[in-house]
Amino acid sequence: MIIGVPKEIKNHEYRVGLTPASVRELVSLGHSVLVESNAACGIGFNDTDYQAAGASIISTAKEVFTRSEMIVKVKEPQAVERAMLREGQILFTYLHLAPDFPQTKELIQSKAICIAYETVTDKYGRLPLLAPMSEVAGRMSIQAGAQTLENSNGGRGLLLSGVPGVAPANVVILGGGVVGSNAARMAVGMRADVTILDRNIDTLRALDSEFQGRAKVLYSTREAIDQLVPEADLIIGAVLIPGAAAPKLISAEHIEKMKSGSAVVDVAIDQGGCFETSHPTTHTDPTFVVNDVVHYCVANMPGAVARTSTFALNNATLPYVITIAQKGYKKALLEDDGLLKGMNVMYGKVTYKEVADAFNLHYTDPTVAISMH
């Protein structure tokens, strides 16, 4: 199979779909890999590194898209990239379609085979291709929140940990999954006053056992949120419904009740965000203020630590890239129900129900869509 790796073009996105080590694995199996020139210069790899691994260096993204049977990326294709996709071409990347109708519409029009990292599951129902970036984003959320609370960034001038004789910041984490648990580990390590909310009792038990009282764990109800919001200095939004738009847990009225200079970090912004007042931002201009509350809503947070993120992502995605390349997409999908759940759009049909429901589009079962081609 001919596999293409274009340079990411989203604002301050330095990650890359395949590292040289991943390219070497694919080439050793007889596949061809086309890498756009300077695709990974932001994380310390040059074209020579890729050539040494067996890749062909291509000067333009257009040529990469034109010549490749499968495109391996990191972030959702931007409009100029979507225009280069063609019927029957495989796209393997993060998509986050539920809050993004323009992308969904154009992927349908392209008739490409679009497999989303974030909805692939393993045999335990976990999200193995989302998990590594969730780990990164969860840990980064506390770094970002700590900086946002500084006066110079519009915050109320709090040190997350406090100092002897001065209380630490009050951190509330909405969601105890991969993002939330990693955020909690960072916040607890920085000696903040941490409360984690979740609706899964098993998750709460696991977190309670891990933190041994160093973080409070509460069942998430509207009343609990109502009580915690006014006292919070920093709220981390870490909720996820796979493939669907994130629920709006924090309303505009909640934001009005927060202390002046407090902060929110919406890690769920890729799926539309869990704060009613959120909208996507970039690393160039990461924050905005609503009712004196600083909002950090960067939609590709792990892109800021691109080298760590790229290696973590490749560790998870490479086995799937190899499987698709070796078997072809039909056999790969039909033999792995978890990979099949990654199929979001195929030959003009929406094959992930939550995406179809988000836009009132017709849903086609992915096995039916595959059988038609």
UniProtKB/TrEMBL annotation:
It comes from the Bacteria. GO terms for molecular function: alanine dehydrogenase activity; nucleotide binding. One of its GO terms (biological process) is L-alanine catabolic process. It is an enzyme of class 1 (oxidoreductase). GO terms for cellular component: plasma membrane. Residues 149-297 form the Alanine dehydrogenase/pyridine nucleotide transhydrogenase NAD(H)-binding domain. Keywords: NAD, Nucleotide-binding, Oxidoreductase. The keyword Nucleotide-binding applies. NAD(+) binds at S134, D198, S220, V239, L240, V267, A268, I269, D270, V298, A299, N300, M301. Substrate binds at R15, K75. The active site is at H96 (proton donor/acceptor), D270 (proton donor/acceptor). Coiled coil: none annotated. Residues 4-137 form the Alanine dehydrogenase/pyridine nucleotide transhydrogenase N-terminal domain. SMART domains: AlaDh_PNT_C, AlaDh_PNT_N. It catalyses: L-alanine + NAD(+) + H2O = pyruvate + NH4(+) + NADH + H(+). Its EC number is 1.4.1.1. Belongs to the AlaDH/PNT family. This is Alanine dehydrogenase.
